[in-house]
Amino acid sequence: MTGPGGVPENAAWGGTLSLQMQFHPDLQANNIKYYRWSYQFADEGSPSPIKATVTHRCQTITISGSVITIHLNPVTFGPQLVSGPSNPGGTPNLFAIPDPTLPWIDINDPLDRPFAYFDSTEGLTPGKSGLCTLILELFDGDGNFVPCNNPRGLSTIGDQPGDPGAPGAVTYILPQIGGPPGTYTNAPVFNITDHGRLTFQVLVDNRPTVAQLPGVSTPSGSTATDPCGALHYSSGSDNVEIDYVAYQPGNFIDWSLTVSRGISGVVAEIVPPTPVTRTSAGSPGAPVPFNNSASALLGPCPQAAFAVNLYCSARITSGYGRQSQYDSSQTIAFALLHP
Prior knowledge:
There is one protein chain. This protein is an all-beta fold. The protein folds into two domains: 4-205, no CATH class; 210-337, Macroglobulin (MG2) domain (Immunoglobulin-like, Sandwich). The chain contains one helix and 24 strands. The strands form seven sheets. Strands 3, 4, 7, 8, 10, 11 and 14 form a seven-stranded antiparallel β-sheet that branches. A hairpin with a 3-residue loop joins strand 19 (253-261) and strand 20.
């Protein structure tokens, strides 16, 4: 079973997360004009607004004689400072709710569809990882916060001293998990703060995988003592130990190891049986042995050269695609020689 971006389930989020929303056409009639997304990692003291520019396109058509011209007009929603008579100081980093009467298009997803882009690496500690809370707020035309009318939870994240106490004219709804497409349910209590904000918690992991092949050894020697990789064996029953490390700190990893002989192709391999298990082995500095007999590797050859390839694939997704920048690999070579 696969999840977002074609990545198997049990993946972590990483890179730039694109946040998608749908707005009821009556919001603007109720003076709900703006939204804002923020994030807060578990080790942070307060939320930070998501400031990446959001621009969508609407379509207009002009007809001149027999010529029909389609225009795609970009409209930037934010971020912007919004103020008004009831909020003269203004509220920063707000984004306009799109006018429902305009012919918006979705040609280039994720550019035309999401309403926020959370770069979980920009301006943060390199490799930032951990539980992260995403916070959604709505605002009126003067930039005043509008709480929802969903039943309130206990979370105080994002609370401000001047927040209104009475619920506003808005209800957050979420896709119904396990239900048919297009069905929704009111956001439950644990997704709503005590002041009427909507929150989600996601596991973010931007830590790369680690692929290491520290060496190969036989009873007669090792590549540590002979870095040229020429290893001797005395009988076909001699063990050939190939040490490897396939690691990702959160265990969000798939990996494979192959041993190829000359031009004969693969003669030994490790392929974790099911991707869902997220099989990992060892940790940096703690290699794991892959043992084969000399005869199993040599086959009909009395002596031969070998290549060992280890590839670690990160089980981390942005929602649109796997974050392959966190992959790693290593290749080493050795030869088995008979005295």
